[in-house]
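Annotated sample (chain length 210).
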Amino acid sequence: MNGESAGLDPSSRDFFEARYRAHVDPWSFATSHYELDRYERIITCLSGQMYENAFEPGCSVGVLTAKLAPLCRRLLATDLSPTAIDRARERCAAWQHVTLRCESILDAEPRCWDLLLLSEIGYYFTPHVWRSIANRLIASLPAGSTVLASHWLGHSPDHTMHGDEVHAILLDREDLHLIHSERHTEFRLEQWTKNEKSGMAYCCAHSSPQ
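Output written by the structure step:
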């Protein structure tokens, strides 16, 4: 753990804000070959479809957000850190349909997303909390919507869970149908479709990401 965030809860706003104030891109999302390769695999999996309403929690400085924007008609991206969101806004300024908001995934309101992208976020939470987040956000998705998760497979003192544990919780869901899975040396990626209609009534009354 870096000195600027030592002693802080690694799932807290203070932890992430300390990192972003100390470094422009603390996890090298814009330059890391690992991240750029992972983003390429994510975009390849999602390409070929235009998403009406997409949600990317934990967007950081918006590198993946900018790559995702051409595939979406509306995209909401959020992050805990105000500094990260400011940098993401600069990076995504050309995309008028992208909304960037300083918000925790814990506070995100379930909506009628047809794409939920969970990238490098789940392992900051305990299994109980991550399961609760998944239950809340996925339960409201309409049938046929897409959920894609991708996480690092290394170990970090900042992480509460391993990437495999994060995905195991999602793979255990009966309302998701797995359509694609990849396991690489450093990361894994799974893509599902929602296979039941329990969220449709909610979505009819909450159709906008704004």
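Annotation: Confidence is low (pLDDT under 50) at residues 204-210.
Annotation: The two ends are 35 Å apart (CA to CA).
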